[in-house]
Design goal:
The structure holds two protein chains of two kinds. By secondary structure, chain A is an alpha+beta fold. Chain A has seven helices and four strands; from the N terminus they run H-H-H-H-E-H-H-E-E-E-H. The model of chain A has no long low-confidence stretch (mean pLDDT about 95). Classes of the chains: A alpha+beta, B alpha/beta.
């Protein structure tokens, strides 16, 4: 079993105690943990389970069901490329090939320097400005390979 | 020069994705340099995305539009005295009179792109909360009857009559009922929910409030997809403002009646757009679909009677109450009453949102509004209704966009998104993608969906590799049939639609090819 540092443990426990009184709180708790720590550390699962009076299996089942929840620490920047139909019609696959080459990683991978994580995403609701991408919650439209490179360059 | 000029620069996620924030900053900077005071409002998008960022200036002649504006255009705009509506190559005239909007019938979207989405006062000034005022003077049964009379059907895709759903919830006796809004807009090619939540969130809040008061529900939840952080911020801001103005809480608009509302975030599962899966997710569980019956209207969230409606459905309720059920029913055709916000997406020259009464043909939408493909090449196929919707060939472009006419050609309207593909599209690959998407997003509860979709990808791969082509095409057809007949919900049950339509209309693409 992996362990968490005392600071992260305290963060998880604080989140659980703040939210456990709400109806159906598990997703809320997991969102808050991921927002605070960047991912859901495996060692957080038993803490959440105990705090919400659920089994570890239930918590693990929920964490693994949803694509949004991460099981490992992401890079400093998360780059999501839409791979759904509207973006495909405007060159999303070619953009994805370019992004993989540029960053030297495949989807779900993180660059060796820990700066970028690349993820596929299925629709960002920006289908009239395809192809779309999102970098750390910032939505981007009409992303050409050149614009992609410029966006990567400008990340701190 | 007036002391303060009001400017609108959309804060809509789509507009910001193509530079609206940078334009707003450049405008503020240039105004500062020139000693001009701007009253800069971040409105929603009017939905003409090819013109975004679309800047509007309030002049005595109305709101004059300029677009698409880049930060580099800003000094030139000031030089052309655009703050007084001056001439400039990007000038579009009064924004509401742009030809693309002129033919539209904006009911649900009447305020989107027009108002300040953070201001209750602006909302009220533009006709907001009139529907609630009417509803408060009626009994719950009368409100439900009005919704039934209006002919409103679920805009999420299932097209179930909204009034009947509400009536079922009204008739239940329970200590707690719920109103839930399905804002898990996951279909590719759709963005009307997002636009509305960002551009006019109070309309959704008012619609949910009316629903709650009508059926006796005191708690509402908006289940919002995690992919929409901008909409999340817009909703949180608007809900806080509505509480502040006593349109939410213990004493809604001075009526002495309670309605509470909060947003809950999904976590990237397409299946949670299915209503029972959404309810599971709201309860904090895996988003696995429930077996129906019982219907959510009888046993829904936490086992209580629950309304589950899409964003656009609920956001149409205030208009119906304010203007009357008959006024709404006067729009549309056949059993498809009212208007539909249609979304033109993908490879289209003028993409965006067109709200019109049901009855327009696909051809009018694609060519009159859309202007044909963005690439300039012939349109070869459109997919209507998201990843579970059929592909429609040009020979069927005279089909009218309503629920029944599309069903008659084996297609479906869904949430009203139309994704356009030009003649470079490989329809066998699109069919493969439909199966692959289903495999990624299947909740796993039933076998036809969970296993069938994976087998579907493999069978299509064999066809493309030239292994036993004929036999595998036949196998694919049988597999589609099994998924349609045997799946528990619409994901597995409809994922074959794009595959079957591709096989039917674009069979020539299902041939062996050499690997690139």
């Amino acid at each position: 079993m992996q362990t968490m540092n005392p600071g992260d443990t305290a963060t998880v426990q604080r989140i659980v105690s703040e939210l456990k009184g709400r109806p159906g709180p598990l997703l809320e708790v997991l969102h808050a943990v991921q927002a605070a720590l960047g991912y859901i550390p495996p060692a957080a699962v038993p803490l959440v389970a105990e705090g919400l009076n659920l089994s570890r299996a239930e918590v693990h089942g929920v964490v693994t069901f949803y694509h949004y929840f991460r099981h490992s620490r992401p890079g400093a920047h998360t780059v999501s490329l839409c791979q759904a139909e509207a973006c495909q019609s405007q060159g999303a696959e070619a953009l994805a090939r370019h992004a993989r080459r540029r960053l030297g990683i495949d989807f779900h991978g993180t660059t060796a320097d820990g700066r970028f994580t690349l993820e596929p995403i299925y629709c960002l609701g920006n289908c009239a400005c395809s192809p779309a991408a999102m970098i750390d919650g910032r939505l981007l439209g009409r992303v050409t390979p050149e614009r992609f490179d410029a966006l990567i360059e400008e990340q701190p | 020069m007036p002391t303060s000029v009001r400017l609108y620069v959309p804060g809509d996620a789509g507009a910001t994705s193509v530079g609206a924030d940078a334009v707003a900053r450049a405008l503020a900077q240039e105004a500062g340099r020139r000693g001009v005071t701007l009253d800069l409002v971040r409105n929603g998008s009017r939905g003409a995305y090819w013109l975004e960022p679309l800047v509007e200036v309030v002049t005595p002649a109305g709101r004059i539009g300029y677009g698409p504006v880049t930060p580099a255009d800003v000094p030139g705009l000031f030089a052309a005295d655009f703050l007084a509506g001056g001439k400039h190559p990007l000038a579009l005239g009064p924004a509401a009179s742009i030809r693309w909007f002129a033919g539209q019938q904006r009911l649900t979207f009447e305020r989107v792109g027009v108002v300040d989405p953070t201001s209750v006062a602006d909302y009220v000034q533009h006709g907001g909360y009139q529907g609630l005022a009417r509803a408060l003077a009626m009994t719950g049964a009368q409100v439900v009857q009005a919704i039934t009379t209006s002919g409103l059907r679920g805009r999420g895709g299932a097209a179930f009559p909204t009034g009947i759903k509400w009536k079922t919830v009204l008739e239940q006796s329970a200590a707690q009922k719920f109103v839930t809004c399905n804002a898990d807009e996951g279909d590719s090619g759709t963005f009307s929910d997002r636009m509305l939540m960002e551009g006019d969130p109070f309309t959704l809040i008012e619609g949910m409030t009316i629903a709650g008061l009508a059926v006796g529900a005191t708690q509402g939840y908006i289940y919002l997809r995690a992919e929409y952080p901008h909409a999340h911020r817009a909703l949180k801001t608007a809900i806080a403002a509505a509480y502040q103005a006593h349109y939410l809480g213990a004493d809604v608009a001075g009526s002495g009646r309670r309605f509470d509302l909060e947003v809950r975030l999904g976590a990237g599962a397409y299946i949670c757009g299915e209503e029972t899966s959404m309810l599971e997710s709201l309860e904090g569980k895996r988003g696995e679909v429930r077996v129906r019956p019982p219907l959510p209207a009888i046993k829904g969230l936490f086992g209580q009677p629950t309304i589950v409606n899409n964003v656009v459905t609920l956001a149409t309720v205030p208009w119906i109450l304010a203007h009357g059920a008959e006024a709404y029913a006067n729009f549309g055709t056949g059993k498809s009453r009212g208007t539909l916000p249609i979304q033109l997406a993908g490879n289209i020259k003028r993409g965006g949102l067109v709200e019109r009464a049901f009855g327009l043909s696909l051809r009018e939408l694609l060519y009159d509004y859309g202007g044909g493909s963005a690439s300039g090449r012939p349109i070869r196929a459109v997919q209507i209704g998201g990843p579970l919707g059929a592909y429609v060939p040009p020979s069927q472009f005279d089909t009218v966009v309503d629920y029944e006419a599309l069903a008659a050609i084996g297609a479906l309207l869904g949430h009203g998104g139309i994704v356009v593909f030009d003649d470079t599209v490989d329809m066998a690959r699109m069919a493969r993608y439909a199966m692959e998407f289903c495999a990624i997003e299947s909740c796993g509860k039933c076998t036809p969906c969970r296993i069938g979709s994976t087998r579907g990808v493999e069978v299509i791969d064999r066809i493309l590799a030239g292994t036993d082509g004929e036999r595998n095409v036949q196998l694919l057809e049988e597999l589609c049939d099994t998924m349609v007949q045997g799946s528990l919900c619409g994901l597995g049950g409809m994922a074959p639609f794009p595959v079957q339509s591709a096989l039917k209309h674009f069979r020539e693409d299902f041939r062996a090819r050499t690997r690139q």
